[in-house]
Amino acid sequence: MTLFEKIAAREIPAEILYEDERVIAFKDIDPQAPVHALIVPKQAIARIAEAKDSEGELLGHLLLRAKDLARKMGLAESGYRLVINNGSDGGESVPHLHCHILGGRALTWPPG
Ligand code: 5GP
Fold it and tell me: Which domains, from first to last, does the chain contain?
């Protein structure tokens, strides 16, 4: 099982913010902004580079629930950033596809 599958199975504790049959969202353990959550498909796709066309509906669902959660966390007016890191240069450290939801401060661009 991946780390995030263990969180979904409640084998590793996390502050869960949202869950349905296909995705789960929880607070990042090492927040990089005042609001930093991760939203993850329960079905473990390693990274976006491995995603299949048949998983398009799941990925669309992930983004739509990320948008809803950002609103629920109070970020709709101020803005926020959704980030998917892919591979070593992308900064991926957990090989289970996840989308970061970052907000609560002005985020710089370009990223580091
Ligand atoms: P990546 O670097 O792969 O894009 O993002 C992985 C994220 O997972 C990091 O922001 C890291 O802080 C977070 N993370 C790693 N281990 C845990 C954990 O055990 N619990 C939670 N809630 N987040 C974790």
Answer: 3-103 (3.30.428.10)
Told to judge if 98 belongs to the known catalytic residues of this protein, a careful annotator would answer yes
Contact criterion met (CB below 8 Å) for 28 and 99: no
Q: Give the other-Cβ count within 10 Å of 91's Cβ.
A: 11
Task: Tokens for 41, please give them.
Answer: 């498909």
pLDDT at 112 (0 to 100): 85
If you ran DSSP here, which 8-state letter would residue 50 be given? G
Q: Nearest 5 degrees, angle CA 68-CA 72-CA 77?
A: 90
- Residue range 86-100, pLDDT digits in tens: 999 999 999 999 999
pLDDT at 48: 98
Q: Is the CB of 37 under 6 A from ligand 1?
A: no
Tokens of 15: 């502050």
| Cβ atoms of 69 and 98 closer than 8 Å | no
For residue 37, give the nearest of 29, 24, 27 by alpha carbon: 27
